[in-house]
Known about the structure:
- The structure is a homodimer.
- By secondary structure, chain A is of the alpha/beta class.
- Helix content of chain A is 46%, strand content 16%.
- Chain A has helices at residues 12-23, 31-35, 85-88, 90-107, 127-140, 152-161, 203-219, 227-235, 241-248, 253-257, 260-268, 272-296, 324-335, 348-368, and strands spanning 43-49, 54-60, 76-80, 115-122, 146-151, 167-172, 176-181, 187-191, 307-312, 339-342.
- In chain A, the strands form 2 sheets. Chain A has a 5-stranded mixed beta sheet. Chain A has a 5-stranded mixed beta sheet with strand order 8-7-6-9-10, with helices on both faces.
- Chains A, B: Residues 45-356 form the ATPase BadF/BadG/BcrA/BcrD type domain.
Amino acid sequence: MKRYRNGEIWDFEHDVNMVAAAHCNGGKNDSKFLNYGVNGRKVILGIDGGTTSTVCICIPLIPFTQPLPDPLPVLARSVAGCSNHNSVGESAARETLEQVMADALARSASTRSAVEAVCLSVSGVNPTDQHRIINWLREIFPSHVRLFVQNDAVAALASGTMGKLHGCVLIAGTGTIAYGFTEDGREARAAGAGPVLGDWGSGYGIAAQALTAVIRAHDGRGPETTLTHSILDTLNLSSPDELIGWTYADPSWARIAALVPVVVSCADAGDPVANNILHDTVHELASSVRAVVERLELCGEDGKDPFPLVMVGGVLEANRRWDIGNEVISCISGDFPGVLPIRPKVEPAVGAALLAWNFLMRQRHQEALGR
Amino acid sequence: MKRYRNGEIWDFEHDVNMVAAAHCNGGKNDSKFLNYGVNGRKVILGIDGGTTSTVCICIPLIPFTQPLPDPLPVLARSVAGCSNHNSVGESAARETLEQVMADALARSASTRSAVEAVCLSVSGVNPTDQHRIINWLREIFPSHVRLFVQNDAVAALASGTMGKLHGCVLIAGTGTIAYGFTEDGREARAAGAGPVLGDWGSGYGIAAQALTAVIRAHDGRGPETTLTHSILDTLNLSSPDELIGWTYADPSWARIAALVPVVVSCADAGDPVANNILHDTVHELASSVRAVVERLELCGEDGKDPFPLVMVGGVLEANRRWDIGNEVISCISGDFPGVLPIRPKVEPAVGAALLAWNFLMRQRHQEALGR
């Protein structure tokens, strides 16, 4: 096999091959086993390339004739920093990706030759990005390895449906997006255009509305709210005027969105302003789901067909008495009684691996049909 | 007089002094006249230090016993680039300020010794900034020159009230703020906290709502609107999806706010979505004014006292059938029948000069009373 860029990252493969050779045939070199890691096992890599961290999961290639085991066997998990090229630049992103995949393979005692498919999920990826990233991966892996690059919403859906691309996924963390897929390959999205373009259901949107409410109470345009004391206390500021400097000191959306738990606490304690913000959030998130479900007719002609709704992200989880996720579900259930809410038990990187497994299965199925 | 920083900027003063010497006493050097420019005239400098340009106005010092003439005599006007230190850095800002003041004095055939007072208006200035900027100016001017640094809202009010600090000013350009002052020196503000903190009545706010409406119509969350075609056409884009890239390609708020005329055109042509955005804008702007007027009791105890409302900025001017400024006035008139709307006939730099004149007059008055 030819040597690839950053060759030293892959030095471990030599040791894996040596161990494999020692295990098999009493040490007699057997090229078949040598290529498949310690035990000839084929693997799939699933990667969640987020803006704060990158997670790579290595799972064994489960035979397509079997149902997926629950829980899914995971051979290794490795974590690295940000691999979003928009955020850290192309060369740092490539190196992070290569390192995290090498780590996961090394921990699985596997090599690149044992890899059957790689699926990388990246936030806000467009077709040009997809093409470029596939070319990076192509420089790393032998030509038989199947490579997939998908929007993070696709992997998030797969993390709830065990890899099947059907239904709707609602993501609400720092940002928010609703994405939907039909079994015949159509897709649709709503929101996901960032804070300037009206993602009011996002963590950033919730926090920005809360900060605005504090400013409005302070200058006499809005009602008093307990958000003032809670937010100033959290940020260690002494006056609402100081919020202006704090807000514009750093353009990070995640820094603003980190105030969501403060808003939920105030709403829990009965503050009407905080409650209004969360009710608006529920309305916004439900309207994103509704737009996707209606455009794809996921609910069927009579509006009652069952469809999965996968719910992902900090805004939809871990709330207290005020549970934004549950409120969204009850709002959606009113319109679409067939909705099947799913909170994924596995992380997005596993969703990406399951997606790769499903793509491979579909391909084998088509090959078996002679297409 | 000592030589100041960037001495060459002030070389013209030598020529002015020579001309003055030649004019007076048949060329006999007369130090009194020499210090006062060509004709012994004392002057005031008013400067509007904006983020796009800096304007400096030189007016003669009108005797305090006379009413201000209308129109006000302006000796010179000079223009330079941005002098906002937050935007271009301290050293570039200082140089721009010094250059624009030197130009105005040279065009007035005056020197720094003829200057009685300088008033510089800067957007979003805080006490720390004020102190620092006064120190810059102190390095340029002889010690007898009175120096004032004020928020741009103060100069905007003065541009409508001929320098008197009483009433409310509403600014709505790229950003928005309402500022109010009472005759006994109290002040209050509303809004002006920037786009993240709810300045929805600003040009940026109007345009961001319009862009959001296009995204919502596109993904099925909102009604169709003619804003889609008009905005895409203006920006030379082919699909609402491309708006996302366009929006985040450049963090300039003014670039987004430049879409306001498109929104007004669509509203003029009857588009309900554009009309709603402008009605919300009127409501937001009126609520800022109302908050300031109520906190300062500018309308008196019975709510009917007269008070000036100075209206400044692109959002409040130059509209067509849909006139945001007029709508705000009619909204405010309903609450406060004593409101006296003023659209300033002079620019903010003149307002700054008038402010300096008023400060000087008040000081002389207090000196005359032996305080």
